[in-house]
C-alpha cells in the first residue's frame, strides 16, 4: 500500500547450532581449522571409499514465514514469550542481522534501541556519541545541533555530557540512547524491552515521547515489551509472535487478551532453572541461578498461597567468586507483565559471599498481600551497579487464594477486578473536628 513504511514478506531466519564434543574449546583457532583439514585429507587417503562424516548440527528457525505491513504513524506492539522471535525480528528490521528467507522493505530512516549501549562507542563522550548517531542516520551537523539541547534536556545527563559513556550507569546509558533515537527525526523508531532498565518516571516519560512521535510527528513506532499495560496504553495494534511465527495481528487489546489467555502458568514446588533456557539471559560470569522454590510458613514447598500467608522464596545459586557486592532480586508480576512487588537483597541486608561455590539464599515475607489470582516470578543475580549476570524471566508461577481477609469484604469482587495488591491499614473515626474527641469506631490491623 502507498502509505506503508514497513513491508515484511515471508521472512525467515535460520541459525545452525553446532554440537561440539564435551570439553572442547568454545572458540576455534586457525591452527585447529588447519589441523582438522589435514586430518580429513589423511582419512580420505587411507579410506577413499568411506564417506566423509560431517559434524552434526541442528537447525533452529528463530523466524519462519513472517509477513505483515505497518503504515505511517502507527504504533505497533510486538508481544510474545521469550524465545518467540521478537528480538530477531527487530534486528532484521534494524539491518543488524540478515534474513535467511524473505525480504523487508523500509521507507525512511530507522533508529533502534535494542539493548543498553546499542550504537554507542564506549570511549567517546556523550556529546560525541550524539553526533556519531546523527551521522549514522544521515543527518548533517546543522540538523543535529538543532535538536542537541532537546536531547540533553530529555536525557538529564548534562553534567556528564563530556564524560566517556563507558563510565555511565545503565540508567544513564538508556536515557541518552532513547533521547538520541527519539529526537533525531527517524521515520521509524524501534524500541525493545531495554526501557525496563530505567526508573518508573523515565519509563513514563519515554512512553509519552513515543506517543508524541507517532501522533504529532507522524512517525512509526515498533515497541516490544512484556509490560502489557504499557503496550495497551501506547499501541493501537499489536503483533503476537509464537515460536517464530505470527499467531495474531490486530487490535492491541485483543492481542493482549489472547497472549494472557495462552500464557501457561508454570507452577512448580521446585523449579530447576536450567530448564528455563528460552527465558534466560546474562553472561553468568559471576554466578549461576540453579533452582527456585516457594515455601509456606511450615517450610513446605507450595504453589498456592492464601492471601496474608507468610512465604519464603528459596534460591540455590552457584557463585564463581567471593564478593560482598552481590545483588539478588525477585520480582512478582501479574500475567500482564506488570511488576507488583520487588524483593532485593541489598535493600534489606548485605549478603557477603565469602567463598566460591553453591549457596542457599532465602527471602522471607511475613505476609503476602496479593489479591487472589495467578502471578509470575522473575529472578536475577548481579553485581551492584552492573547489568544482570544471570536472570530468568517467568521462572515459575504461583496462585493466591481467598482467606479470612478477603472473606471480610462484601465488595471484594468489585475491587479485585482493578487492583491486585492489598495494603493493611488502620481506620478510626472521631466525633467533631479535633483528634482528641471520642473514638466512634476503629479497625484493628
TrEMBL record:
InterPro entries for this protein = AAA+_ATPase, ABC_transporter-like_ATP-bd, ABC_transpr_TagH-like, Bact_Polysacc_Export_ATP-bd, P-loop_NTPase, Wzt_C
**Molecular-function annotations in GO:** ATP binding
In this chain the ABC transporter domain maps to 43-268
Question: Origin, by domain of life?
Answer: Bacteria
Q: Name the Pfam families for this protein.
A: ABC_tran, Wzt_C
Q: Which UniProt keywords apply?
A: ATP-binding, Nucleotide-binding, Transport
CDD domains, from UniProt?
ABC_KpsT_Wzt, Wzt_C-like
Hey, which family's this protein in? Belongs to the ABC transporter superfamily.
This protein's name:
ABC transporter ATP-binding protein
* Native organism: Leptolyngbya subtilissima DQ-A4
